[in-house]
Every structure is written in C-alpha cells, then in structure tokens.
Amino acid sequence: MRVTDSLMSKNFLRNLSANTENVMKYQNQLSTLKEVSKPSDDPLKVSKILDLNNSIIQNDQYKATINDAIQWTNVQDSALSSVTESMQRIKTLIQSSANDTLSHTDRQANKVEIESEIRGTVDALNTNFGGRYVFAGMNTTEKPFKVDENDNGEITGITYNGTDEGKGNLSREIAPGVLVELNTDGRKFMNAQNADGSDDLGTFFSEVLTALDSDDTEKLSSLLDRADQEIENVVSNRAKTGSIYNRLNATLERNDSEKLNLKTMLSENQDIDLAEKYMEYTMESTAYQAALSMGTKILQTSILDYL
C-alpha cells in the first residue's frame, strides 16, 4: 500500500511539474507575444527564425544600395538634362553665327555666350552626389572634367581626367549575385571621333571658338552636323541612364515584395495567435489547478497512512 502511494505521489509531482512548466511557457508567450524566446524552446524553429532575421537584414542592405543607386542615376539624369540644354543652345548660336550677314561684333557676343555654355556643360559633368563625382569613372573623389584656357583666360577646349575607358563604370550588387553597372564613365561624353582620341568634344569646342574669332562661316556651317552628333551622344547616354533607373526601380519593387514575404514567414514562425494562445493558457491553468487539488488529497492520504 505504501509503495503504491509513493508511486502515486511521484507521478503527481512529475505531472504537476510538467503542468507548471506548460503554464509558465504560456505565460511567457503571452507576455512576449512570441512562440519562442530561447533556443531550448524549439531549436529548429529558433534556427529558422534566425535565418529569416538574417535574410531581412540582408534585404535591407540591398535596399539601401538600390536606393543609393537610384539617387545616383537621378542626379546623373538632371546633370545630363542640363548638358543637353547647353549643347542645344551652342548649336543654335553656331547656326546663328554661320549667317554671312552677321557682324563680327555679334559673333563675338555669341562666342561669349558659347563659352558660358561650355563652362555650364563642364560644371554639369562635374556634378557630385554625396561628395562623389558621378561621371568620374572609378575615381569618384576627383573632379573629372576641366576647362582648358590660354594665358588670356580664353577657352581652348576641355579635358577628361577620370578613369580610362573600359574601366570607368561602377558596379553595385542589388540582389544576391545580381550586379548593375552604373553609367559613370565620363570619357564617353568626350565622344572621341578617332582611335587616339585627338578629335573629341574638347576639339569641337575649340574649333567652334576659333571659327568665331576668324568669322569662318563655312567652318561654322560644317560644324552643325558635328553639333548634332554631340547632342545625340549626350541624349543616348541619358537614355542609357534612364534604362538603368528603370531596372533599379523594378528591383526595388521586388525587394519590397521579398521583404513582405520574409516578414510574413517570420511572423508565422515567431508570433503567437493571441486568442488561441490565451485559450490554451486557460485550459492548461485549469488542468494545473485540478491536478493541484487532486494531488493535495493524494498527499494527505499518504501522510495519514504513516501515522
């Protein structure tokens, strides 16, 4: 009889301990609103939650990179818009100056305005974003374009001091294993007409200014086609920047969608259903109280058997 009572007491204490642990588990879940709070609660689930949290952190890092690249391309587009306007104005002034009836004084006035537009073009191509020059190739800390002047301060052309061609575009990783190449190689705006680069945008500007000084209307007329080429080059590169911008925005949308999916999966593994969990807690508490009441009677009987 005493052996049976002893076993009953041990079973009661073991079951009561399990009931107590369950009640405490539900209390903790209700207070934290989380399914697990330490690895021992559910090692597999905790491991999955950690993986999901790491994926969300990585997703946020990619989003920051994408947003930075989007802002970069926006700045580039604004700069190229200014360059296009300046180049179109230069063409208009060349066309005006090619008129034989225009006086030398009027051509010199046009020259002054063209020089101003050239400086504006160089300023736009030297645009920086967050201290980084957006058309400097890989060397983003140094101003890439420079106005060349003679001893009298007159413009003789422009030069590019950025990264060599073929090494000038920055790349950004916008998703795991996915790289986007930003249109940062400023050398392409020099639009070299020959292999050694001796005839480029700087040469074009120089020829225009020289023709204005000498009232060479025939030369000015011949430079109109070249002006169209230079404008088309800028427009073409602006379109390329626009396509990069569109790709980045599409990637940003996928990034946001992926984050939503990750957070949904995290919630499914980590967050509790409050109503369901409270019902489970109530049932476990009721079972705990019933076991405690029953156990009290068992223990009292066992003690009396020894008296």
TrEMBL record:
NCBIfam families: flagell_flgL. GO terms for cellular component: bacterial-type flagellum hook. GO terms for molecular function: structural molecule activity. The keyword Kinase does not apply. It is found in: Bacterial flagellum. GO terms for biological process: bacterial-type flagellum-dependent cell motility. It comes from Carnobacterium alterfunditum. This is Flagellar hook-associated protein 3 FlgL. Belongs to the bacterial flagellin family. Its main location: other. It comes from the Bacteria.
